[in-house]
UniProtKB/TrEMBL annotation:
Protein's name in the database: LysM domain-containing protein
Organism: Pterulicium gracile
Pfam family, one: LysM
Endpoints of the signal sequence: 1-17
Entry-linked Gene3D superfamilies: LysM domain (3.10.350.10)
Keywords annotated in UniProt: Chitin-binding, Signal, Virulence
Alphabetized GO MF terms: chitin binding
Matching PROSITE patterns: LYSM (PS51782)
Annotated ranges, domain LysM: 32-79, 88-134
Database matches in InterPro entries: LysM (IPR018392), LysM1-like (IPR052210), LysM_dom_sf (IPR036779)
SUPFAM superfamilies xref list: LysM domain
PANTHER family in alphabetical order: AM15 (PTHR34997), PEPTIDOGLYCAN-BINDING LYSIN DOMAIN (PTHR34997:SF1)
Length: 143
């Protein structure tokens, strides 16, 4: 009996440790919703709705694939979860660099990189049309 309950609590602890990160992405109330229109693309939606490209993907881990190739008209997306909803954004233009973007927005580098965890410190992986968060508040996208 003791052995069984010890085993059970081990299994429960393991299961919650494994499922929590994923559950965190799904949980939390949606702050803003958006209904996909014909011809929409992720960066187009992001720029028009003031949401970063990263946040849109992060908030919709199952609805949007990694190439954003599976959007369908009438589909309802959540743009941001309560407390994890950056609405202050910058659309990357050709020739933009991270320093210019965060300096232009008047925010520290740390805030910029915390809110854009997909952007490399070297900034080599941003691209024209990508939408970045330039809010002065730091959002926690880790859970
Ligand atoms: C997006 O932000 C801009 C600049 O602050 C604002 O003018 C515009 O109304 C916002 N659009 C939406 C859909 O919130």
């Amino acid at each position: 009996m003791f052995k069984f309950s010890a085993l059970l609590s081990l299994v429960v602890a393991y299961a919650s440790a494994v499922t929590l990160p994923l559950a965190g992405r799904q949980s939390g109330a949606c702050a803003r919703e958006y209904t996909v229109a014909p011809g929409d693309a992720c960066n187009k939606i992001s720029a028009a709705q003031n949401v970063s490209t990263f946040q849109l993907a992060w908030t919709n881990p199952t609805a949007i694939d990694q190439w954003c190739s599976n959007l369908r008209p009438e589909q309802v997306l959540c743009l941001g979860k309560e407390g994890k909803d950056c609405t202050d954004v910058h659309v990357v233009e050709a020739g933009d660099g991270c320093w210019a973007i965060y300096t232009g927005a008047g925010i520290p580098a740390e805030t910029f990189f915390a809110n854009n965890p997909n952007v490399a410190r070297t900034c080599h992986n941003i691209y024209p049309g990508e939408v970045l968060c330039v809010a002065s508040e730091v959002f926690d996208y880790s859970t």
